[in-house]
Design brief:
With 98 residues, the chain is of the alpha/beta class. The chain contains 3 helices and 5 strands, in the order ββαβαβαβ. The longest helix is centred in the middle third of the chain and has 17 residues.
Length: 98
């Protein structure tokens, strides 16, 4: 009996899928996944909003829990991911200035 979780990782650039989403192998992995981690690499505010809208649509159409990550620096960012339907949120660690 295996206790490991299968998490599929999807990168978002400016709110749109970056790699692998339309690949047949990816679709099969998605069916077998225990969770999906979306890492938002958007740099503009519009891209970040696009990513949140994308995640909301995923949440409405998919029963697999998802993890939100990327561009999480404040509590407000955590709340946005949770309101979009994320089950978990990965926070960025703040670098100490020298």
């Amino acid at each position: 009996m295996s206790l490991e979780n299968k998490i599929v990782v999807v990168y978002l650039d400016e709110g749109f899928e970056w790699r692998g989403v339309h690949n047949e192998v990816f679709k099969i992995r998605l069916l077998l996944a225990d969770a999906i981690m979306f890492i938002d690499r958007s740099v503009t505010d519009e891209g970040k909003e696009n990513a949140l809208h994308f995640l909301k649509s995923i949440h409405e159409n998919c029963d697999i829990p998802f993890i939100g990550a990327g561009n999480v620096r404040r509590y407000e960012d955590v709340k946005k991911y949770l309101y979009a339907g994320a089950s978990f949120v990965v926070c960025n660690e703040k670098e100490e200035s020298s």
